[in-house]
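Why should sequence recovery work at all? Because a backbone constrains its sequence more than one might expect. Tight turns favour small or flexible residues, buried strands favour hydrophobic ones, and helices have their own preferences. The token representation captures these environments compactly. In the example below, the structure is given first.
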């Protein structure tokens, strides 16, 4: 959720249903960041493929895209194509968790609703992790899934087939489908229960994110660890798909403008990586330290300590924010925010789009 002094949310990428609030049914792709027009001070944006849910600090909830609707008294919302999950505040009572069919547009009655135990209240968290961090919401049955108390979850993120959990002690756990290496255990096997990533043992992580079939986490020192499927360069590792589309000699500039054709320092062709089944350390350009991360279906975005945004991976709809539809297998800084003197504070990716929260840079 966005915090601190008032700022502006921007959206870019796939917008064929008018997902970016205020955009209407304009172009299918927003290739450069556009300010969201919401009429309220947003604190949370959750994007699914065909619609976006926006929550204001005053408790308002607005849906835009293939479905539209509004509600009040909301603390949080989490959007998926199968379910829209809403956490409703109830004065004097425990909060209520509601699950809606997205097409209902928040009219009528929810598919199901559940009052959360009073002991669970007080922990803000972020959906799909429930307050109290003892359970999370899944878009598929059994919908409400319990977590072992010893996991002490701080963050939980869901990919297309896997889950990623960051514990209060900075350890990372994953489970679910693993056929693209997205679990990070060095195999392509599924894991039915949360399993700690041994490759990260001894390192303290402060941020985690799950993409469609890839995962990323950030250490307390700002290092980026990434693993899973690399079909579109979403791991920032050399990928054959992009190299075959790039003429020799293209690329260069701003740390990561190349669209493929990677080579080693001695000029030999780089080894292409389709699947990375265990965490790989990624160096951002200019020695930048990452503090926030989010993943789309096949793209990745991180915010640095200096307030800059780097993106890479699949870019067909402009979801990388570089004013084109190119894909990248190297991190590249989004110049729009630098050029407009905006400090990026938060990023959240939908499957094919990206939303960013910024504040104006302080005058020196």
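From this structural description, the recovered sequence reads:
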């Amino acid at each position: 959720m966005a915090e601190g002094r008032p700022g502006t949310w921007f959206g870019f990428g796939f917008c064929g249903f008018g997902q970016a609030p205020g955009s209407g049914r304009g172009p299918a792709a927003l290739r450069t960041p556009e300010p969201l027009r919401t009429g309220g001070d947003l604190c949370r944006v959750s994007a699914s493929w065909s619609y976006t849910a926006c929550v204001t600090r005053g408790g308002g909830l607005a849906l835009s895209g293939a479905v539209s609707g509004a509600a009040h008294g909301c603390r949080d919302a989490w959007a998926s194509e199968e379910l829209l999950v809403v956490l409703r505040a109830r004065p004097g009572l425990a909060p209520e968790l509601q699950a809606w069919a997205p097409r209902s547009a928040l009219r009528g009655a929810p598919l199901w609703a559940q009052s959360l135990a009073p002991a669970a209240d007080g922990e803000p968290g972020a959906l799909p992790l429930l307050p109290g961090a003892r359970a999370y919401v899944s878009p598929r049955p059994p919908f409400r899934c319990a977590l072992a108390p010893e996991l002490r979850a701080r963050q939980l993120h869901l990919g297309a087939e896997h889950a990623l959990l960051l514990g209060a002690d900075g350890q990372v756990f994953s489970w679910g489908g693993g056929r693209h290496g997205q679990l990070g255990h060095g195999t392509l096997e599924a894991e039915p229960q949360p399993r700690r990533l041994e490759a990260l043992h001894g390192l303290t992580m402060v941020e985690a994110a799950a993409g469609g079939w890839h995962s990323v986490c950030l250490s307390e020192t700002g290092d980026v660890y990434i693993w899973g499927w690399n079909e579109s360069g979403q791991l920032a590792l050399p990928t054959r798909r992009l190299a075959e589309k790039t003429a020799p000699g293209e690329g260069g500039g701003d740390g990561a403008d190349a669209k493929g054709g990677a080579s080693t320092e001695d000029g030999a062709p780089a080894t292409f990586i389709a699947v990375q089944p265990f965490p790989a350390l990624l160096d951002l350009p200019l020695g930048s330290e990452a503090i926030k991360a989010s993943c789309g279906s096949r793209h990745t975005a991180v915010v640095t300590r200096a307030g800059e945004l780097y993106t890479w991976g699949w870019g067909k709809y402009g979801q990388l924010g570089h004013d084109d539809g190119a894909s990248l297998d190297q991190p590249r800084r989004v110049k729009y925010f630098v050029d407009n003197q905006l400090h990026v504070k938060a990023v959240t990716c939908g499957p094919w789009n990206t939303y960013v929260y910024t504040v104006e840079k302080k005058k020196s």
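A few observations help interpret the result. Residues 335-339 form the longest helix (5 residues).
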